[in-house]
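Deadline looming. Please check this record:
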Amino acid sequence: MKTHVSEPLCAQDPGRVLGRTAEIAVGWLRSLDRRPVRESATVGELRSRLGGPLPERSADPLAVVEDLARAAEPGLVAIPSGRYFGFVIGGGLPAAVAADWLTTIWDQCAGPYVCGPAASVAEEVAGAWLGQLLGLPPHVSFAFVPGCQTAHLTCLAAARQHVLRVAGWDVEERGLAGSPPLRVLVGAQRHASVDRALRFLGIGRAGLTVVPADGAARMRAGRLREALAGGDGPAIICAQAGEVNTGAFDDLDAIADVAAEVGAWLHIDGAFGLWAAASPALRHLVSGAGRADSWAFDTHKWLNVPYDSGLAYCAHPDAHRAAISVFADYLVLGGPGEPREPMDWTPAFSRRARGFAVYAALKSLGRQGVADLVDRTCAHARAFAAGLAGLPGCELLTEVVINQVLFRFGDDETTDRVLRRVVESGEAWLSGTTFGGRRAIRLSVCNWQTSEDDIARALGAFRAAVTACLFSWSRRRAVPPGPASPDAFGSGWRPVPARAAVESTRRRLGTWWAPRSSKPVSAALRRWRVRFPSASAELRERALGAAGADARCGGLGRPVRTGLEHPFMIRPPRPAWRPPRRRPGGPAPRCGCSAMSSRRRRARASCAGSPGPPRRPGPGWPRCACPRAA
């Protein structure tokens, strides 16, 4: 029986495949500015493109790569683009991306030192650099991990070992059964990955003490002290540097004081917020962070290292090593020169050598470059928030602390509709969230490629989405104007909701009119004279003071919060009918002639095409004497 033996892969030229792969990668990067940010294929289409039966025979590697790129391309999200603002995801610095490519080619196992000496030393150097950059104590230990989730697991395992050992319990030898009960105090607005890490460590939700947060999602240090005073025993406090929705920072100095009073372990979730320590302008936000016992953060966020990459730091190396290290007869550990064994600090045997990309990113940026990156992205977030103030119905929910912007439009349904339209436009990608029990939109800027033009394009997408949603509301549920109030708004003015103003414009222009952009909407509202009230100097001053020097945005009245009931003011409509003009000496207007008012022609056409009895003109409506008017 003849057996088919394929050609060994080592006999094939790798340069041919890798060269073509580089061309595809560069083409993808160059297309980011013009391609939609969202994916263009459905899950069913992707399954059809990528699926099929398992191949029976081998295939040409170049054909495999090209087929994969062609099939996957419609399902790719342009995360490296400067217009991706979802979750808290950075891009990839050129040096970091190139180093990550080399990491794949070198294929080093960063478990034991003997399997990747260069990888181990690169992690040792990069870890020390990061500690200096973020102002951590010089004696800290660290571990390169996939992300902040595993960093929490590593740090909290060390915390559990330390506080139980102080209480006289060896958790590595005896486990948790029968151990002194642990008290874990967390903020009400903590990240879900903290709970998940604690669950992995045998600490369920029932074992957590939740400390209330203020309106900006910061843990209340006073309530933390009260919670600790209500019990005794080993305690772990989980604080936060950068809340995922608001970007707010806990008062780390005050929390560190409370932890020191009772001897509790203080862990800081600094997934992205801890990078504020790299900026002299923002360093005050993390005051007291150096007093903590452990820190967890990501480098694939603000440092813009390719996924996945995170770090765990611990101020107690003995506890860290006791909780994580592993020994086996077959393992070859140590060697001349006392090398650092990554397996002693990281909860993984076999793993990618993540230190190369972090090393390249830090060496390419330097201390000043990292600070500039943080400051620049925060400035973009503030610029976006300022632009949102000109959109009808937009409400900023918190101040912009760093790079997070949290806002909503009216009710939950409108907020989700606006977000969906922006994402579907392909101009930007953002994620929704729930804050204070209501739907909101969250924008995060941490990509090194984000520019002022990207912010302007995102604002333009929101402006178009808001305009479209206003007209969608007007066609589905018209709201009648509010009652006149001459005392409040001056003679001849009355307030109406924004969608009622648009509905009035639509009725005036005809039911067929459905614009696809904001330009005709702006022009229509200008013709309809939607603006702020002018009768009261006090009200006008309040409106302009809240809106700034320019009280208009794209032709739309700016919905500032002036204490009025509605954001728009609209002049009442003209009389229902005006007598048609008649040329001197000319014939009386007849039904359908050019002298007949367009309002009457529309009324008659509407009556003829509508079900039920035809509508008759009201009192004062002129009647034509011709038979067609009968």
Q: What stands out?
A: DSSP finds 19 helices and 16 strands in the chain. Residues 355-388 form the longest helix (34 residues).
